[in-house]
Amino acid sequence: MKLTRTILKLECTHGSTETKLLNNMMLVPLRANKTGSVVSASSSSLSGADGAKTQCFICADRATGKHYGAPSCDGCKGFFRRSIRNNHTYSCRFDRQCIVDKDKRNQCRYCRLRKCFKAGMRKEAVQNERDCINSQRAKEQTVGTLSISVLLQAETTVQQFPALLSPRSHDITTKKTAGVGEVFESMKQQLLLLVEWAKHIPEFCSLPIDDRVTLLRTHSAEHLILGVARRSLPYNNVILLGNDFVIPPRGAEVEISRVAFRIQEELVKPLRELVITDKEFACLRTIVFFAPDCSGLKSPQVVRHLRFQAHLLLEEATCEQRGRFGELLLILPPLQSVAWQMVETLHLAQLLGEAKMDSLLQEMLLGEGTETGQGVCTGNDPTQDQQNDLNASPATFPSVICHASMAPTSGFLAAHIDWH
Amino acid sequence: MKLTRTILKLECTHGSTETKLLNNMMLVPLRANKTGSVVSASSSSLSGADGAKTQCFICADRATGKHYGAPSCDGCKGFFRRSIRNNHTYSCRFDRQCIVDKDKRNQCRYCRLRKCFKAGMRKEAVQNERDCINSQRAKEQTVGTLSISVLLQAETTVQQFPALLSPRSHDITTKKTAGVGEVFESMKQQLLLLVEWAKHIPEFCSLPIDDRVTLLRTHSAEHLILGVARRSLPYNNVILLGNDFVIPPRGAEVEISRVAFRIQEELVKPLRELVITDKEFACLRTIVFFAPDCSGLKSPQVVRHLRFQAHLLLEEATCEQRGRFGELLLILPPLQSVAWQMVETLHLAQLLGEAKMDSLLQEMLLGEGTETGQGVCTGNDPTQDQQNDLNASPATFPSVICHASMAPTSGFLAAHIDWH
DNA sequence: CTGGACGGGTCAAAGGTCTA
DNA sequence: CTAGACCTTTGACCCGTCCA
């Protein structure tokens, strides 16, 4: 940006003489910037008629306009500002009658400053220090250790993967309706991408393996829903899967349609209304991911802190636009709700033998393929021993709860994470 | 350093009258408010009527009207437009907590822009360059009618009721452990109080009756949990019910203990750590209450707006403490989760004939005693007809979902609300 | 039809940057 | 560190359109 401007400016400077002429002829006051093509040292040659106004009242150098109340050159302008800002006190080594002109103006600061005042400069016109213009300090927006750029990069990875697999047409009407098989296929794809996503977060990688598995599993359903909701933002009433199949408002299987409808109503619509940005979405995913509750985590405090950082980043990303941050966070309860309904549906389908699920899906979404259930939520549950008898009967006890009750150690998932 | 400079400068501001003279004599144009020592010439227009309303919401300078959604001065107006137009990204050199007032507004552009958003400016109101002649008058989002004082008053009612019934001793150890009967008794008490609470909110009372019933029922479980968590804040590992019974960490029935444990871990502990205030709690309850999702509401937009107002109030109540607002909102997902687990537990107990529940409890918590289930979430569900076949079999389909699927019209609850 | 509100634009004069 | 040439940002002021 800045570079571009500079280049433009350099390219345009040939026109400055012409402009200068125009300025002089039409008495256009100093212009300068906007396009950068006009050089500010314009009204110089107009010494004859209006010479007084274009001369520096302090040193008789060419003035660049009025500054702090007196027509003055850039040198005296800067000198006055620095003197006032830094509250300098000078003293004259001679007689306080030094000549201040273009050549000798730097020989006595005391007399120069005095002449500034005499010429009409007012210290009140000097303002407080401002913000740095050069914002490209590359002041990496980092909260604690999580940085927005890492999250954005992770996000791109997740987003671009499927695009590489299948070049999409943007016409939603030509896409095929997903059956159960395609839904499962897409889910599996997305879950693998979730693992890839997580690997992009260094803070995740330095967690103990059990916690990594736990995090990946605990909210995998929410990630699927969140991802599909986002992918479907541009489309009306149609859910677009990662493998380019769609779920239309009607015509899909009942259970699928029900979940799809809720995704539309409770997630896509609000998100669309908010016009969620990439940054915001990246933060939201991270907040969902680092949920410290209910997962039997070994280091819940670390996870809690990561979520805290992520939510500060989200806050930042929303620029505190009135109410926006809250609206985004309030997406999470319905997200959780829809995700659970999806898991319930899957579980039921599984129980009724209606669908054959991949082992990855079973492990991540249903929490199966693990050792026997081991208590809820946190590792140090004092009532844990009492609970096993209930958890041991998943057929009668709702799977929502069983799902959150599994011990983390497992094969497939752990193997997928481990080689990182 | 910076502070020193400012202080030093303030010390130097004598001689303003002299300056004014100078201004007049030298025909320096009145530039007004920078230093405040020069009176603006144009103060004629709107100054008389409302001194308070003509203040810039961002920097407290004199406002020139509403710009981009917020009463603001010309400076903040221009700043916002430039920032949006040029897609500027600022960063704060400090802690993102810079003071933005008339004097210091130029010292941190990040914090100034942030405050613009916070004051209600919307980037959509900035038009694209100079082409869109369309007069999409940005409709005013009036920051609504909900007031914190009303919420606080409603809260006191709910809190004080049980205190009147039983003068408490503060010694937690002398209280009796609750059995299933006492838990149910307390629940019923609290649910009736919830109705009372809601009646204190005028905006609730002017909703259609069906929506009132729906709101009361949909999140009744969350209200119970939220209330009990708050009541238990002072105690360690003990849950205090509204009827003065307790649920100790051990020794209660298994199902009760499990929920109690999660309440402790996921709600009481975080809330205690935050030291939640009365205002914040009142707002949180209201946010939970006015959940626009998943309830078959007739006027979801009104409810959504009420929740929006409540969350703005919460934001205000947190006094901008870094991250506090987010932490409070992130209480909601675990609250929902625990509430559902409780409902599941109740449902199971009901199915197994282990507990005889009051009809109010059944209606509000389990969603029973109503007409047949009528589809999920929203009234205009296109797949609604397809869904009934699944919802009609609550015995096999998890009750979590059934619970959220009930139609609002019912007897007991409606009767309780109606005479208001 | 008129005046206030609120979009847009302008540009003098603030500010900051950066090399010598 | 200061000087000063050079570039950006600020905000007071003005214009045009819409609508009550």
UniProtKB/TrEMBL annotation, chains A, B:
Cellular compartment(s): Nucleus
Cross-referenced InterPro entries: HNF4-like_DBD (IPR049636), NHR-like_dom_sf (IPR035500), Nucl_hrmn_rcpt_lig-bd (IPR000536), Nuclear_hormone_rcpt_NR2 (IPR050274), Nuclear_hrmn_rcpt (IPR001723), Znf_hrmn_rcpt (IPR001628), Znf_NHR/GATA (IPR013088)
Region ranges (Disordered): 372-391
Start and end residues of each Nuclear receptor domain: 53-128
Keyword entries, A-Z: DNA-binding, Metal-binding, Nucleus, Receptor, Transcription, Transcription regulation, Zinc, Zinc-finger
Gene Ontology, cellular component aspect: nucleus
Principal location listed in the UniProt entry: nucleus
GO molecular function per UniProt: DNA-binding transcription factor activity; RNA polymerase II cis-regulatory region sequence-specific DNA binding; zinc ion binding
Domain NR LBD residues, every copy: 143-368
Pfam family, one: Hormone_recep
Record flagged with keyword Nucleus: yes
Family affiliation: Belongs to the nuclear hormone receptor family. NR2 subfamily.
Protein name as catalogued: Hepatocyte nuclear factor 4-beta-like
